[in-house]
Amino acid sequence: MAVLREIDWLEGGRRFPGELRLPGTACLLKAETGIERAGAIRRETRYFVSSRALAATEAAVAVREHWAIENRLHWVLDVTFAEDQSRLRKGHGARNMATVRHFALNLVRAAKEKRSIKSRRKVAGWDTGYLDAILSSQPA
């Protein structure tokens, strides 16, 4: 993890039409990762912008926490509920359905059993007894 705190060059006097501006930026982060699969190593470099001046160890923790949230919540919502396929765009529909999905995900997660979250959701749609158990927070 590399941290660049000297970012005064971002606020230079010359501006160009359509130029990206990052007000409130405290530091820039560069994270290099390596993944080994089937004997081959794949390397990636990711860049982050932070509004807080971080040390390298703090930045590494922040990046890991960000991806933990992404993997624990957003990925599950997309795989289980196909959230990225939703076409709700107008009014409050998108926010309302996101709330319903989060509520449903929490109920399905509370059912401690060997089935996957996706399977639990499907079984709840097929079996009203199982659905009642999930809604009453007493899954079988």
Provide structural commentary:
Residues 41-107 form the Transposase IS4-like domain. It holds the Pfam family DDE_Tnp_1. It comes from Pseudonocardia zijingensis. There is one protein chain. This protein is an alpha+beta fold and 140 residues long. The protein is 44% helix and 18% strand. It has helices at residues 56-81, 93-110, 117-126, 128-135; strands at residues 2-4, 27-37, 40-50. Strands 1-2-3 form a three-stranded antiparallel sheet, with helices on one face. It is elongated and about 65 Å long. The mean pLDDT is 86.
What's the quick description here?
Helices cover 44% and strands 18% of the residues. With 140 residues, the protein is of the alpha+beta class.
Helix-strand layout with pairing:
Blueprint (H helix, E strand, L loop, with lengths): L1 E3 L22 E11 L2 E11 L5 H26 L11 H18 L6 H10 L1 H8 L5
Antiparallel strand pairs: 1-2, 2-3
Helix pairs in contact: 3-4
Pfam families: DDE_Tnp_1
Protein name: Transposase IS4-like domain-containing protein
Organism: Pseudonocardia zijingensis
Query: What is the straight-line distance between the termini?
Result: 46 Å
Report the C-alpha radius of gyration, rounded: 22 Å
Can you write the helix and strand succession as a string?
EEEHHHH
Major β-sheet profile: 3 strands, antiparallel
Number of strands: 3
Spans of at least 5 consecutive residues with low confidence: none
- Shape assignment: elongated
Strand order of the largest sheet: 1-2-3
* Average pLDDT score: 86
As a percent range, the share of helical residues equals 40-55%
Number of distinct helices: 4
- Note the beta-strand portion: 15-25%
* Structural class computed from helices and strand pairing: alpha+beta
